[in-house]
Amino acid sequence: MSDRLLPVSRAGTLLTVGLFALLALGVYGASLENAFVRWDDGLLIYENPAIRAITPETLKTIFTTYDPELYIPLTFFSYQLDYAVGGIDPLPYHLQNLFWHTMNALLVAWFVLLLTKRKIVGLFVGLLFLVHPLHTEAVAWASARKDLLCTFFSLLSMITYVGYRRSSSRKFYVLSMLTLLLALLSKVTAVTLPAIFILLDLLERRRYDRTFFLDKITPVLFSVLFALIAVLGKTAVLSSSTLWDKIFMIPTSIAFALWKLLFPVGLSVLYPFIDALTLWNPAVLTGIVVCALLVVLLFVSWRRWRTGFFGLAFFLIFLSPTLLNFAKGNTFYLPADRYAYAASIGVLLLLALGAAELAERLRLARAVLPSIACVVLVVCGVLTVRQSLVWKDSAALFAHALAHAPQSYEAQNNMGNVQRQTGDTQSALQAYEQAITLLQDYGRGDVSIPLSRVLSNLASAQRESNDLVTARATYEQALLLNPLNPYAHLGLGIVSGQQGQIAEAEAAYLRAKDLAPDAAIIPLNLGALYTQTGRLDEALVSLERAVELDPLAPQAHYNMGVVLRKLERNREAREAYERAVALAPSFVAARINLGILYYERHWVDQAIEQFNAVLMIDPQNAMARSALDQIQAAMQ
After folding, report:
1. What is the pLDDT of residues 134-156, one digit of tens each?
2. CA geometry: angle at 289 spanning 286 and 292, to 5°?
3. 7/50 Cα distance (integer angstroms)
């Protein structure tokens, strides 16, 4: 590659790569064992049928749908690769995240070296980017892959653009445009790259000639196209706040992101902004003052320190696409840590150059600045190790969120979901009730839709506590607030079925199915209802749909096996049970039914294997013990 783009030796490059890889493993190694979390990981990964194969159909799906708000087809494709390697084991997903983060840190070092021609500055900025605690969310959270990929291809696009402008080689321009396209396919925040290209031209004081403008046509067209696609997915978010909300939240968000970047403590997955949004709110006023100071610094640095101007403008430009994304579920939020992932490069560059400049002016001993740099890296590394383990699992994540933001209804609701999943129903009831109180106290505007969602969760916990009367009333309350809540209809159907009201249960399931046609849990329950009432053909149709929507759901395969057995389609029933057991090896009922079918086919060894497996799981299982006794008696 041109020496304009790789001004270091091959040996130096290999040593740098090795250093970054070892440091990345040292800081994030423990978090590679983290589980998935109930914070979009299900939606994007382990409950997402589109990533479970690489076929023309799944590729069409990922390139024609949102996530549901963002257009991220290349990110989905990376999840398809993870699934091909390890299924829904979290390890491959975390490993790939760490790989991209390490590559990004290396590219940051390369990019800074290109701009400053100072190897030590480039190395330090790259290492600080690698271990900075604010970046933990983007690395430790599997669902943040889009930020990592977008940053990787954005950095490549900027680096090759610099190569093009310095060499006039069209090869570099084509590479820059291709990597820009890949960045946009990873996450739409790369729409800011045309502005960064202009910023790079200004940094190197290039002339405003015909080539300057022609070079911007392709990236601007790409960015406009993807910006239009993004607006279609973000319509609800953009319309959920007023103009004054935006005017006050934007400077507040900028100041908050800058503060967390400079002082990365008290980090959390959620930063709810529950105070009154007025000019005299200290946070808002501070944000306005900080932004005014940033504007002054931009003007001053433009004349006196062009690299400083570049770093500050880089931060603001890369942060800008996220500044309108503060209104979610009738709550306003300050920027998530990952929003500053790419933007942080500008500030880290400023800090490194400023420190080097100050050391030169003060004529400090040569060992002082490297010593300070090492201390900073060690402190950041320790903080990052601790923060990465916050993402250990859903319970740890939301317990940490509640410790830092006890007023967050979203954290309370998600903690309730985790507690329900682990069988702690009483704690879940308390969490949901607290979430309802917080939403009513701190929610902005009409909270009927998020309140309906939390009430539906509360009703499900009440149903699981066998309080069917209260659960029915709570589901009905949820539907009064939002008649289009499919999961409230689903829950009402389950309660009705348990109370013997079959017609009402069927009507509720069908309404839920109309509202959420792609939710596998709905045809699964409808199929169970049809099975219960002897409508086996209809049951089979519903269960086939459930399997189509979620082929990894063992219960759907098991229920289909039950129906096929009743229809005397034993070979297909056996295959359904085998699939259920393959998906859930501890599924006792599936193994027992499979063992019975094996025995009826005179496959005695396979039958014994299934019943023995049941006893390994449940040594007191009377049915498996009885079956083995009967088989042994018949063999004598």
Report:
1. 999 999 999 999 999 999 999 99
2. 150
3. 42
Token pair 């983290």 is found at 34
The predicted-structure confidence for 313-372, as pLDDT tens digits, reads as follows: 999 999 999 998 888 767 889 999 999 999 999 999 999 998 888 877 777 667 788 888
Q: Are residues 457 and 497 in the same domain?
A: yes
The amino acid present at 457, given as its one-letter code, is N
The amino acid at 533:
T
Top-confidence residue, 169 or 475: 475
For residues 46 and 159, state if they share a domain: yes
Question: What does the pLDDT average to over 382-409?
Answer: 94
Whether residue 182 contacts residue 226, with contact meaning beta carbons closer than 8 Å, is answered with no
CATH of the domain at 446: 1.25.40.10
The answer for 580, left when phi > 0, alpha when psi is -120 to 50, beta otherwise, is alpha
Handedness of CA 263, 269, 274, 277 (dihedral sign): positive
Q: Which of 506, 554, 550 is nearest to 528 (CA)?
A: 506
Name the pLDDT band for 2 (thresholds 50, 70, 90).
Answer: very low
User: Does the CA dihedral 577-494-50-186 come out positive or negative?
Assistant: negative
Question: pTM of the prediction?
Answer: 0.87
* Token pair in block for residue 334: 């300050």
pLDDT digits (tens, 9 = 90+) for 101-128: 999 999 999 999 999 988 899 999 999 9
Residue scoring higher pLDDT (24 or 207): 24
Average pLDDT (363-386) is 87
Q: Are residues 86 and 112 in the same domain?
A: yes
Cα torsion at 343, 347, 349, 353 (round to 10°)?
170
Using CA atoms, how far apart are residues 404 and 267, in angstroms rounded to an integer?
8
pLDDT in tens, 556-569: 999 999 999 999 99
Whether 601 is covered by a domain: the verdict is: no
Q: Do residues 364 and 164 lie in contact, with contact meaning Cβ atoms separated by under 8 Å? A: no
> Per the domain annotation, does 554 fall within a domain?
no
User: What residues pair up with 328 in beta bridges, in sequence order?
Assistant: 331
Find out whether 300 and 365 touch, Cβ atoms under 8 Å.
no
| Residues 117 and 23 both lie in one domain | yes
Residue with tokens 């297909």: 572
121 and 71 belong to one structural domain: yes
Contacts of 375 (CB under 8 A, 6+ apart): none
Instruction: Decide if 634 is inside a domain.
Output: no
| Gap between the Cα atoms of 423 and 444, Å rounded | 32
Q: Cβ atoms within 10 A of the Cβ of 66, count?
A: 14
Helices (H), 482-569: 486-498, 502-515, 521-532, 536-549, 554-566
Domain that holds residue 508: 406-519
Residue pair 135/341 in contact (Cβ under 8 Å)? The answer is yes
Taking residue 26's Cβ as centre, other Cβ atoms within 10 Å add up to 13
> HSE of 276 in the Cβ direction (CA atoms, 13 Å)?
4
DSSP line for 567-614: TT-HHHHHHHHHHHHHH-TT-HHHHHHHHHHHHHTT-HHHHHHHHHHH
pLDDT in tens, 417-428: 999 989 899 999
Residue 307 lies in a domain: yes
Q: Which of 491, 519, 547 is the last residue of a domain?
A: 519
Domain boundary among 519, 536, 554: 519
The residue among 321, 250, 331, 323 whose CA lies nearest residue 291 is 250
Helix (H, G, I), strand (E, B) or coil at 523: helix
